[in-house]
Amino acid sequence: MNASHTLTPRQAARDTLRAYFGGAPTRYPIDPVAVARSLGVNVYQSPLPNSTSGMIARTHVDGGTDILVNTEHAPKRQRFTVAHELGHYTAIVNDPARAEAPFVHKRDSLSSCGTNSEEIFANQFAAELLMPEDEVTRARRVGASALSLASQFDVSLDAMNFRLANLRLA
Ligand SMILES: [Zn+2]
Questions:
Q1: What distance in Å separates the CA atoms of residue 134 and residue 101, rounded to the nearest whole number?
Q2: Range of the domain at 73
Q3: Structural domain tally of the chain?
Q4: What is the whole-number distance in angstroms between the Cα of residue 116 and the centre of ligand 1?
């Protein structure tokens, strides 16, 4: 067991947003690149293979952490990818056993299947960071359509429909 199992992705995302806005009201849509940079994580657009949405790496123990995002992919998909990679980063830095060690995570066709716990954590973190449960629920209850919510939170309609289904708000 390690500490990342005790920190839920939802709580990790909420903590991240609270720290980013420093007590000021949360403003939407969230800019995941700005959030990453506020944590000292570099974000670069890169011509990655089409099957790879992005990756995050810290190659040296005392080096910086870099997120690469596929520059060929749609902007909304890039936003979700950066948020996903930030989920990996958050899990790692909150785990004393891994906080200082080098690591690499790649997001490709395999990881979107959500088959391992690391990927599930990163996907749930990304969903909560970009489409916070409380705000989506509040908007939905007063009648916002999936399309208007997708626009408000700057995510794809597919991503918002998936989020609404997971929150039982579809
Ligand atoms: Zn991943």
A1: 34
A2: 3-130
A3: 1
A4: 9
Residue 147 lies in a domain: no
Q: Which residue spans within 10-71 are E strands per DSSP?
A: 41-46, 52-58, 65-70
Please report whether residue 123 resides in a domain.
yes
CATH number at residue 49: 1.10.10.2910
104 C-alpha vs ligand 1 centroid, how far in Å?
10
> Average pLDDT, stretch 85-89?
95
Residues 6+ apart with CB under 8 A from 26: 17, 132, 135
pLDDT tens digit sequence for 75-84: 999 999 999 9
| DSSP characters over 122-166 | HHHHHHHHHS-HHHHHHHHHTT--HHHHHHHHT--HHHHHHHHHH
